[in-house]
């Protein structure tokens, strides 16, 4: 039967001024950056600890680095690995690589050697632009994998002169801060970043990328195995930046201040900071690592107007600002992603800022944002919102995607739109399992959709626990456990049962001063959950493992519990 969502009932929920569809992209990311340089030239583009770079200067530096990379053999379709924290060199490298029609491959600079090596083996980049603290790691497998050029980046060179001088003071705090930012030197055979900026600018006639050329390989989080490289084209990423721009009425182009508190090697940070912020001529304040103290210090100097982040960041900033007496006024827009946004966090944040905090939803394979709560009175906390402009959805039987579900019926969410990726790098079987005929993206998320189009996430298909023949959604159990006063946070997973199948196990972090009372927790859970949903075992952990953007890693929780003994 046809999908009940074909008529897009959610369009009535859009904030005034938000178009139903965006114009198809005509600019590559390179064209987009050129347009921002021409339009916003004297404005500050990047702000790093107070040191600013104008759009004009940014464009010049991108050209010089692109010319140097071209002279070293980088050309159309070549993969270039970027292994950097948030810093000016990251932005410059990203657009310089794209200017040549080459492909950016983003990496977490805190990955282990094994994690990085696996990804390099997969994408085959011969050139890597890396944080100097990571240079030795990459150098360790460079010869084996045929990496011919490693460029080392000391990001402290982009800081104000006074800040750099303070980092060199012979005191413990200065030494510690400096070590966290730079190694202070490069291994043999690694080229210093400065060498890339010494040459002439790129010739005007140098070939440029096309809209359907690959712009980036973004590695997924790998919650169901080793990470896979999602193929994102200029069209995909340009479309998502345009969708984000359309979603936020009231943005003042050339005047916004966007904080890059999210890592730009993550799809969420890449789109909201590297592309969206640059497309509107914003001042992008680069934070190499999120700390409450650093953000509040920057707020005193250059207050944000737009802050993309994750729920724990909003909660910690609001608490920290209240404690330190720092005003958060002026942050008009905040978009939360990657994990569920508690209504209490929305209330706390909006009381502190006077602005709006809404939840969005997406995945690396959708560039990444596909759904969001409207920026206006129709928003609905507790849901992830409605589909973006030019985006449509289906809800289907996860075991047979040809069977459509209706309103308020649980099923797997499928996405369709210009931001949907092209597949996984060199993985045709995984691509075929995820990208269905017609360009429909399987999200792996079980949802319900209200008659007016608001989407509620029920759980991940692949994290459902089957116990006693029944499916259990871990997030449902976690929410109940976290509501107990003795529990600070919880993660629920399935472990192999000695009786066959799986049994439900909860890892909990206790509130300060609390002790584990298993029977009390079970009685509490039974008030809200069917008996089969109550965990059979409980284990106390000091902290739950989380990703760099704060998402609980259930796979790592499961591995910890399998390796240890559970408290009963």
Automatic annotation (TrEMBL):
SUPFAM superfamilies: Acetyl-CoA synthetase-like. It comes from the Bacteria. CDD domains: FC-FACS_FadD_like. Pfam families: AMP-binding (PF00501), AMP-binding_C (PF13193). PROSITE patterns: AMP_BINDING. The keyword Ligase applies. Keywords: Ligase. Residues 476-550 form the AMP-binding enzyme C-terminal domain. Signal peptide: none annotated. One of its GO terms (molecular function) is ligase activity, forming carbon-sulfur bonds. The keyword Nucleotide-binding does not apply. Residues 35-425 form the AMP-dependent synthetase/ligase domain. This is Long-chain-fatty-acid--CoA ligase.
């Amino acid at each position: 039967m046809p999908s009940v969502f074909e008529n897009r009932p959610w369009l009535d929920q859009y904030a005034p001024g938000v178009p139903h569809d965006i114009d198809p992209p005509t600019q590559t990311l390179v064209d987009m950056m050129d347009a921002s340089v021409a339009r916003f030239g004297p404005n500050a583009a990047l702000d790093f600890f107070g040191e600013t770079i104008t759009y004009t200067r940014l464009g010049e530096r991108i050209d010089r680095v692109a010319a140097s990379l071209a002279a070293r053999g980088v050309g159309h379709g070549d993969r270039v690995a970027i292994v950097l924290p948030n810093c000016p060199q990251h932005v410059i490298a990203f657009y310089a690589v794209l200017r040549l029609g080459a492909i950016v491959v983003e990496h977490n600079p805190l990955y282990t050697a094994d994690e990085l090596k696996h990804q390099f083996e997969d994408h085959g980049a011969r050139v890597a632009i890396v944080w100097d603290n990571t240079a030795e790691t990459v150098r360790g497998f460079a010869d084996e994998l045929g990496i011919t050029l490693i460029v080392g980046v000391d990001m402290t060179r982009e800081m104000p002169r006074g800040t750099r001088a303070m980092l060199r003071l012979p005191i413990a705090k200065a030494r510690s801060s400096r070590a966290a930012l730079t190694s202070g030197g490069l291994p043999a055979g690694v080229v210093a970043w400065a060498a890339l900026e010494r040459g002439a600018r790129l010739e005007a006639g140098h070939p440029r990328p096309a809209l359907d050329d690959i712009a980036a390989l973004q590695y997924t989080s790998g919650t169901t195995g080793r990470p896979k490289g999602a193929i994102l084209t200029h069209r995909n990423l340009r479309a998502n930046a345009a969708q984000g721009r359309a979603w936020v009425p009231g943005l003042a182009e050339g005047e916004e201040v966007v904080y890059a508190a999210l890592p730009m090697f993550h799809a969420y940070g890449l789109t909201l900071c590297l592309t969206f912020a640059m497309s509107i001529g914003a001042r992008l304040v680069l934070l190499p690592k999120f700390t409450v103290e650093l953000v509040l210090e920057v707020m005193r100097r250059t207050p944000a107007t737009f802050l993309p982040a994750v729920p724990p960041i909003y909660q910690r900033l609001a608490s920290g600002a209240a404690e330190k007496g720092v005003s958060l006024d002026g942050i008009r827009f905040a978009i939360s992603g990657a994990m569920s946004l508690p209504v209490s966090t929305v209330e706390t944040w909006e009381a502190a800022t006077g602005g709006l905090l809404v939840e969005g939803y997406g995945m690396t394979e959708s560039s990444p944002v596909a759904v969001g709560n409207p920026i206006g009175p129709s928003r609905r906390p507790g849901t992830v919102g409605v589909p973006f402009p030019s985006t449509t959805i289906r809800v289907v039987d996860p075991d047979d995607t040809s069977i459509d579900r209706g309103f308020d019926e649980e099923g797997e969410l499928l996405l369709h739109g210009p931001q949907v990726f092209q597949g996984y790098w060199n993985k045709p079987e995984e691509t075929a399992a995820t990208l269905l005929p017609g360009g429909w993206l399987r999200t792996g998320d079980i949802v319900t959709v209200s008659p007016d189009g608001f989407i509620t996430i029920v759980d991940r298909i692949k994290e459902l626990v089957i116990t006693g023949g029944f499916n259990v959604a871990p997030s449902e159990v976690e929410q109940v456990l976290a509501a107990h006063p003795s529990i600070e946070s919880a993660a629920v997973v399935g472990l192999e049962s000695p009786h066959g199948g799986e049994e439900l196990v909860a890892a909990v972090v206790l509130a300060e001063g609390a002790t584990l009372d298993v029977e009390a927790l079970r009685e509490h859970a039974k008030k809200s959950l069917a008996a089969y949903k109550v965990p059979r075992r409980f284990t106390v952990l000091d902290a739950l493992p989380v990703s760099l953007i704060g998402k609980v890693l259930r796979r790592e929780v499961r591995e910890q519990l399998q390796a240890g003994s559970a408290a009963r």
